[in-house]
């Protein structure tokens, strides 16, 4: 009989690694098998559980949410070619800032391991004890959070530290001043209710899961671009091997994040097939509520957010370029390979 209930201990269990994941004396999570392949942390039973829950969902006629990072479109500033150009001009701070900010945003994800979220069983008519969503507070969200923020008390770095290690391999330590990320990278809800049929605490959790999935998709696009830059043969010439190792670290992060994306698509796929208890004593199909919010979120993430982010980032990069001795020429060349010429003009 297929196993569908797991303890937190099982969902936290890691493989027996042949070699730990350690770089420059810094212990990082995960490890390597006997063939030298990277193996994510806390994946021994978690991977099995996700596969079993997905199989059970499909047997009930449902499926994982049909979504991936290709949903997100829009300009990026700097795009990959602009980032390469800045590095060739000796203007590496923008790329360094990006690595630093990404690491700090990843570190924020540890809050998933430190918060108790509402029990969705109180919202849902059907028994969810043998579903992934019945395990959110039984190890799944905590494991996700520890992946992001590591185990500082044990000296084991998660994705946050992995980004800092990758940055320092490419640039060396303290290459530029520290930088802080924006306070909020999810869609600002401004106190509006998109799912008034259910209690606010449940709407908060559902909207959080959907926003988190969009953040993961956005990150996937950025991670791929970062690897392309790090693997550019003529860049980081005096640290070429280190830059390649940095790209490999990011590949390991992407391997871990694939579990997160699959998990979130599974949670949302399960939720779409269930009946939610409404505040007026009735019920409503999960798909009706989730699809309403998801459509609005994707509209924001593909139209409004990319343009606003590009314009804000352009203003900061433009100022940095113009401080260079040949700034006007560099800016002209930078603008010539922009993804967003109209926003560049508006921001300038």
- Strand-residue fraction? 5-15%
Number of strands: 5
Mean model confidence by pLDDT: 93
Give the count of structural domains: 1
The major beta sheet can be summarized as:
3 strands, antiparallel
Structural class: mainly alpha
Task: Output the strand order for the largest sheet.
Answer: 1-2-3
- N- and C-termini, Cα separation: 63 Å
Output the helix-strand order: HEEEHHHHHHHEEHHH
Low-confidence region ranges: 342-348
Number of helices: 11
- In which range does the helix fraction lie? 40-55%
Compact summary:
The chain is built from eleven helices and five strands; from the N terminus they run αβββαααααααββααα. With 348 residues, it is mainly α.
Report on this structure.
This protein is mostly helical and 348 residues long. It has one domain. The chain is built from eleven helices and five strands, in the order αβββαααααααββααα. It has helices at 8-11, 46-59, 80-88, 93-108, 140-149, 159-171, 200-230, 240-272, 286-322, 327-336, 341-347, and strands spanning 19-23, 26-32, 38-39, 275-277, 283-285. A three-stranded antiparallel β-sheet has the order 1-2-3. Helix 3 crosses helix 7 (200-230), helix 6 runs antiparallel to helix 8 and helix 7 (200-230) crosses helix 9 (286-322). The longest helix has 37 residues, at 286-322. It is globular, with a radius of gyration of 22 Å. 37% of the residues are buried. The model is unreliable at 342-348 (pLDDT under 50).
